[in-house]
Amino acid sequence: MLKYLVVYASESGNTKMIAEEIFKAIPSPSKDIVNIRQWTGKLDAETYFIGFWANHGSCSLEIIDLLSSLINKNIAIFGTCGMNNTEEYFKNIETNVRAWISDSNYYLGSYFCQGKMPALIREKYEKCRDKCDDPYIIDHMISMYEEGLQHPNKQDLLRANVFADAAIKNIPDDVNL
Ligand SMILES: Cc1cc2nc3c(=O)[nH]c(=O)nc-3n(C[C@H](O)[C@H](O)[C@H](O)COP(=O)(O)O)c2cc1C
């Protein structure tokens, strides 16, 4: 069994960038990284870093399947979100996704940052403008969209690296899984 496994879901590459940075930060040769789409379930590890893109305030089904299948592991989660680049929003997503991790596991925390969204989303927002009573809501969503185009940036990657390092240091030696 490996010591560390990074498993991620990424449709457009944002979460993959974070996953690769976390993989780089793991100071052990006993590690692997896999896109959940290519994962056969044969790989196993003591510690999982599980990444996903925000999907309707949570994560996708394949990530739910993985999280809810794990027993007696150390688990950290990470992800990218297109909207609402705030700690409060990140906390909500963490709460929604953490609910799928059983108590038999040792939870190591979460890391989130913003990620860019496809141009189609901006077009959708623009189309809603006429139907929306408050045009400032659309302006706000478009400004979030534009902010997202800069992410993940170097700082996001650096923070992911620091998060992975701290998560690993937080695994108690005598963790009784
Ligand atoms: C169907 C769908 C649902 C989404 N739902 C959310 C959401 O609830 N909250 C959010 O912040 N971003 C949401 N997004 C945006 C993505 O989570 C975001 O762009 C993410 O960085 C994509 O990561 P990836 O490049 O790894 O696929 C959604 C995107 C799609 C396609």
Kindly list the characteristics that best describe this protein.
binds flavin mononucleotide, five-stranded parallel beta sheet, single chain, 2 domains, alpha/beta, Rossmann fold
How would you sum up this structure in a few lines?
The chain is of the alpha/beta class.
Describe the structure.
The chain is α/β, with parallel strands linked by helices. It folds into two domains: 134 residues, Flavodoxin domain (Rossmann fold); 34 residues, no CATH class. It is 41% helix and 21% strand. The protein is built from six helices and five strands; from the N terminus they run βαββαβαβααα. A five-stranded parallel beta sheet has the order 2-1-3-4-5, sandwiched between helices. Strand 4, helix 3 and strand 5 form a beta-alpha-beta unit. The chain is elongated. 33% of the residues are buried. The model has no long low-confidence stretch (mean pLDDT 94). Flavin mononucleotide (FMN) binds next to helix 1 and strand 4.
| CATH class wording of the largest domain | Alpha Beta
Structural class: alpha/beta
- For the record, the count of structural domains works out to 2
Gyration radius (Cα, Å) is: 17 Å
Q: Which geometry do the CA atoms define?
A: elongated
Percent helix, as a range, is: 40-55%
- Put simply, the count of helices is 6
Strand content: 15-25%
Number of strands: 5
Following the backbone from N to C, one meets helices and strands in this order, namely EHEEHEHEHHH
